[in-house]
Amino acid sequence: MARIVMKFGGTSMAGTERIRRVAGIVKRQQEAGHEVAVVVSAMAGETDRLVNFCREANALYDPAEYDVVVAAGEQVTSGLLALTLQAMGCKARSWLGWQLPIKTDNAHAKARIEDIDSEALLASMAAGEIAVIPGFQGLAPEGRVTTLGRGGSDTSAVAVAAAVKAERCDIYTDVDGVYTTDPRIVAKARKLPLVTYEEMLELASVGSKVLQTRSVSLAMKEGVRVQVLSSFIDETAPAADTLPGTMIVSDEELEGSDMERQLITGIAADKNEAKVTLTRVPDRPGAVASIFAPLAEANINVDMIIQNVAKDKGETDVTFTVPQADLARALAMLEERKEAIGYFRMISDANVAKISVVGVGMRSHAGVASTMFKTLADRGINILAISTSEIKVSVLIDADETELAVRVLHTAYGLDAAA
Ligand code: ADP
Ligand code: ASP
Ligand code: MG
To answer: Which of left, alpha, beta for 115 (phi over 0: left; psi -120 to 50: alpha)?
Structure first.
């Protein structure tokens, strides 16, 4: 007997027919003798719909009320899955975020899980009841509902798995594993049987939305075994223990496997950033700080930064990227401080994409970045900004060239699946 946490994403939960399928997969897992907790997302498109309602109601919405609205999508699917399981003769009940509770900080709309009270959950699972938990939801210290940021149900699942010391956290989604790049963009993408926490973390953080970044860092920290696999399997498919998904593993496990390590593990694209340029910023100590300190205070994440070489008049242009969702706030804030910062003009562009190549092999091999630059140049793709880390190179390009860029890089690094 094992304790297993299963998570189903929005596409898998979209409608009663699909929920019935999910219930079938869950039931089979229980029949295999396991204690089961299930974490569910809202139906596909539902969270977007709720977010739009908030925007329509009040463009500068209060994040605490936003959370009240968007947490509702998961409440619906958790109740529906419990009902469906009951109809199949299983004992099941839902546990809302505030009921367990899943305690978070009070950063509404992007809350961080601090603790999960697992006592009631463990008792219910031990009694043969399937625990159904809405993902994405939490409870702030002052008693209000929080949500964990888009894609947050992955993090709920990993946190529940850590809290109940589950043997495994199976993330069921609409693709059958983690690929070298988004298989919906590149048909030749290859499925990775194993990927290390570190590489998955980097891939997620640069835009592979198959797993939320925080879910990977939490899994790494807590040593949760995470497997990504498809929920679109037929009723007679083997149990998840033997399904060919992608297992997230430690570096040692990968070394010990017979999988050959490639220089590049994967390529990701992120269209959710926007570029801001401030021209003629005074080139003196403190100038850059006066731009970025207020953004940091407002919890706006700045990613890529370029400061041009100062021209003779002691002025320089500063370019950086922020999440598109925060662009309006960032621009308003910088406009307000125009005199204090002393820049001349502010220019923004949301039609950009960040393309990143990730691989631990980069640590010991030179030339990854130059291959990237040359490949893009050969296709006439202009690079607007560059950033690197130990195992990643990212470039910012025109969003219209995203698919072409990912495809040519995938080929250039030898990642294409055999035809
Ligand atoms: P869910 O609703 O199940 O949480 P998501 O839409 O959040 O599903 O994540 C799954 C999607 O992630 C896939 O449909 C795929 O388009 C996308 N994706 C992006 N990069 C990758 C990758 N490297 N491997 C697999 N899927 C990826
Ligand atoms: N429903 C939320 C979203 O769409 C959380 C999730 O599905 O992971 O972002
Ligand atoms: Mg997701």
So the answer is: beta
Q: Is residue 186 predicted with pLDDT exceeding 70?
A: yes
* Per-residue confidence (pLDDT) for residue 308, from 0 to 100: 84
Q: Which amino acid is at 72?
A: A
Read off the pLDDT of each residue in 5-18 and give the average, rounded to a whole number.
Answer: 97
Check residue 363 and report its DSSP letter.
G
Alpha carbon distance 111, 317 (integer Å): 34
State the ligand closest to the CA atom of 9: 1
Closest atom, ligand 2, to C-alpha of 9: 7
The three-point CA angle 109-168-33 to 5° equals 125
Element (H, E) at 183: none
72-87 vs 63-70: helix axis angle to the nearest 10? 20
Ligand 2 midpoint to CA 247 (Å): 22
Coil/strand/helix, residue 278: strand
Max Cα distance, the chain (Å):
78
For the segment 74-85, what is each residue's pLDDT rounded down to a tens digit?
999 999 999 999
DSSP state letter for 129: P
Instruction: Assign 96 a pLDDT band (cuts: 50, 70, 90).
Output: very high
The DSSP output letter for 180 is: S
The torsion region of residue 299 among left (phi > 0), alpha (psi -120 to 50) and beta comes to: left
Please tell me the distance from the alpha carbon of residue 290 to that of residue 340, in angstroms, as a whole number.
8
What would the two tokens of residue 4 be? 């297993």
Q: What's the order of all strands across the beta sheet hosting 266-270? A: 266-270, 352-358, 392-398, 385-389
Question: What's the CA gap between 99 and 210, in Å, rounded?
Answer: 28
What is the distance in A from the centroid of ligand 1 to the CA of 226?
Answer: 15
pLDDT of residue 240: 56
Instruction: Give the three-state DSSP class for 59.
Output: coil
